[in-house]
Amino acid sequence: MWRPIRPITRDPFAVSDARTIPDSDLVFVPVRFPDHDTEAVEVRPPTISQHKWYFKDQQQVDDVLFFKQVDSSTKPGVPRRVPHCAFKDTDLPEGAGEPRASIEVRAFVFYDKD
């Protein structure tokens, strides 16, 4: 669950249609913390076909977004991840709007296989 704490006037939050981002466009990068290492996934520019991204312009505090970030399913057509990010809206003048402030909650959902 992701929601803004105040209306979004710059750097909106975008989610992808994961079906449009092939694994070949993903890059795994190391992330190092003082007590452990992990990795993040970044998306490189499209190589085969166009990626599709969606965002809500002027998102308000009651515009809550739910999305499935990771799925362990191996069924064909079920996305394993949903790339998401903030982006700079080039239609806005430099420095316009307040910095984005948001809150997110992550939950694990377990269920029996079909």
From TrEMBL:
GO molecular function, a single term: oxidoreductase activity
InterPro entries with a match to the protein in the record: AsaB-like
Transmembrane segments: none
Family of the protein in this entry: Belongs to the asaB hydroxylase/desaturase family.
PANTHER family found in the cross-reference section: BLL6449 PROTEIN, OXIDOREDUCTASE AN1597
Protein name: Cephamycin biosynthesis protein CmcJ
Organism of this sequence: Colletotrichum salicis
